[in-house]
Amino acid sequence: MRPGQDISRYTAWFRNYASSFCGDDGQVWDACALKTRHTFRVMGEIGVLGKSLFLSSREMRLARMMALLHDVGRFTQYARFKTFVDAVSVDHGDESAEIIARENLLDDFSECERRLILYCVKWHNKKEVPADASPEEEFFLRLLRDADKLDIWRVVCAHYNGKMEAPKETVELGLPGDRSISQNVHKDIMAGGIVNSLDLKTAPDFMVLQMGWVFDLNIDKSFVLLNKRAYLEKIARALPPCREAREIYQKVRSYLDERLQGKRETKAVSATGDANNG
């Protein structure tokens, strides 16, 4: 790691902060361990993506800080509500940004850098990137969202393959195990859009939402990794064998193939505001 990328004291703070929530409760311990592992894997993913974009030392340090802190609110969320489901607890992006500000964590970053980190942490889990984001905000936010998705896909695919790294209610949102796909969820995907979380009625609906994240990927390297790891195929195999599932897989697979072939323009921009094709 280049000197300008060092964030070791923040990493030490994060480990201490996360462990302070573990206690003797096995369920809480497992939840904290899950989010700690996820955090460091997202840091790894963002490093790979950043390298593919030839980020400077300053840019890479900012990206890694965002990854380190993006889910820091998950620990208070679980401690208070015993769930990672935002809809029945707190918005974990907002919670994370509030903790960072309250703990005064970013004292050796400039004011502009602090605002940028807080912005990206706050918005990393929202349905869409804000339309009024600056070019720099949009670039780093899309980068963080890609890195986050890549590891979440890993977790859910392991779950669907029988490897219970995460609690079932985390992966399936506590949705009924009904083996059907809701009409509105199917409609959202076939229109090339992100599934509205309010339309989720069954566990397969949430799987479809996860497949639809491909429409919100931005960095060329993200598409390469998604294809190499076959996450779409792994989720598709867990869906019920029905016409809707086949159509959904064909839709997301076609979009991924088009991105891999460079037939669609990327939504990501560089920190300087230029189109970034990765």
From TrEMBL:
CDD domains registered for this protein in UniProt: HDc
Spans through the membrane: none
**Which Gene3D superfamilies does the record match to this protein?**
Hypothetical protein af1432 (1.10.3210.10)
Where in the numbering of this chain does the HD domain appear? 37-151
Protein name (Swiss-Prot/TrEMBL): Metal-dependent phosphohydrolase HD sub domain protein
